[in-house]
Amino acid sequence: MLKLITKFKLFIANLxxxxxxxxxLFAFGGLLFxxxxxxxxxxxxxxxxxxxxxxxxxxxxDTARTLLSTFIGGxxxxxxxxxxxxxxxxxxxxxxxxxxxxxxxxxxxxxQNVLGFYIATLIYCILILLSIKPTDxxxxxxxxxVLVGIVLSMLVLxxxxxxxxxxxxxxxxxxxxxxxxxxxxxxxxxxxKQTDEDSMQSNFPDTENWHAVEVNRTGYFQTIAVDALLxxxxxxxxxxxxxxxxxxxxxxxxxxxxxxxxxxxxHQEQLLTCFGFSRSEIVTHNYILxxxxxxxxxxxxxxxxxxxxxxxxxxxxxxxxxxALRLKKKDFSFIANQDNEAVIKLRxxxxxxxxxxxxxxxxxxxxxxxxxxHKMLTALYFLLQSDSVLDDAETILINEANLILxxxxxxxxxKDDLKGIFSIRSKMQAINGTQNALIExxx
Length: 443
Fold this sequence. Notes:
Blueprint: H1 2-16, H2 21-42, H3 45-52, H4 61-96, H5 102-106, H6 109-131, H7 143-170, H8 173-194, H9 197-203, E1 211-214, E2 219-224, H10 226-236, E3 240-242, E4 249-250, E5 255-259, H11 265-272, E6 275-278, H12 288-301, H13 309-326, E7 333-336, E8 342-346, H14 351-366, H15 370-384, H16 391-411, H17 415-429
Parallel strand pairs: 3-8
Antiparallel strand pairs: 1-5, 2-4, 2-6, 3-5, 7-8
C-alpha cells in the first residue's frame, strides 16, 4: 500500500507539472458544461425564459448559427495568434537570456488557464451549434445556451486583452529575474525553517559503513516523498542518508542512499519509490537551480552578442540576496520523525561549492569589465557584513575575493581602474579577521 500511495503522489506531482494538464481540465469542463446546458434546455429552460424574460433568449435559428459560427472562427484565430506570439517571445528569451528559463515561462499557470478557457469555450460553442435543429418551433431552439455562449465569447475577448498584457510583462528580463529569485528564496526559507540542524547533527550516527542502495533509473533527482520515507524508517526501525543532492542528474546504478540496516529487494524497491525523477529541472523543487539560472543570465548578458551589463548587474544583486539567505542555512539537513529524532540525513551542496560555482563563470566572462569586477567585490563585501556569517563562510568569501582581485590584476591594464577595484579591498579590511587575508595591489 505504501508503494502504491507513493507512486500515486509522485505521478500526480509530475502530471500537474505538464503544460497540457490544466488546459485539458478546462476542455473537459467545457464539454461537461455544454452537456449540462443541453440537459437544461431539454428541461425547458429556454421556454421558461421566453415566457418570463424574452429579452434574454435568442429565438432565431439563423441568428444563433451565425453567432456561434463567428465565435468558433474568432476563438480559433485568437488562439493561433496568441500562442504564435508566445512561441516567438520564448524563442527571443532563449536567445537573449538562457534556454534554461523556458520551462518556468511555459509552465506559467495563468497562461495555461487562458488557453484552457479558450478551448473550453470553443468546445461549448461547437456542441451548442450542433444541437440547433432545423425547425420553426422556437421552443426547440437552445436560446439560453446560445446566450451563455455569447457571454463566454465576450470573456474570451477580455482574457485575450489580459493575456497580451501578461505575456508582455512576463517576458521582461526584470520580471524573469525576480520570478527566479522569489522561487529560490521561498524554497530556501522553507528549508531553513524545517529542522533544528545543530542538535540533530550531533545525534545522527556515522554513515560510513552503512549499506548503499543504487538507483534504478536515470534522470534529475527532484523530489522526495518525505511522509512515505519517514513511514518506511519507522516500520523498519532504521535511519537513511540521501547520498546525492536534489537537482543532481543521476545515472542508473549510482548509489543514491545509505541505510543503517541491510534492505531486501522489496524494501529497496519501496525506498526507491520515495524518490521522484524528472528530465527537467524545477526551481520550486531545488533552490540551487535559481542560482544556476541567474548566473547563466548574467553570463549570457555579458556576451559580445548581447552586451547588456545592466542585466548582469541586476543578477548579481539578486544573487547577493540569495547568498545572504543561504548563509543562514547549514551545509547539512535532517528530517525528524514524530519524536523529533533525526532519521533522514539529506546531502546538500555546501556553501563553498555553491559560491565557487556561481563566481567562477562570472570571473571567466567578466574579468575584463571593470564595473562587473567592482560589483562582484561589492557583493562579497555585503556578504561579509552579514550577521549570519560563520568563520568558515568568512574564509570562503575572502578566498573568492582574492580570486577576483587576482583576475583583475591580470586582465585590467589601466592603473586607475585597478585602484578603483582594489578600493573595495580597504573596506573589506575594516571587517574583523580580513586585515591580512586579502592580496595587495602592488606586485
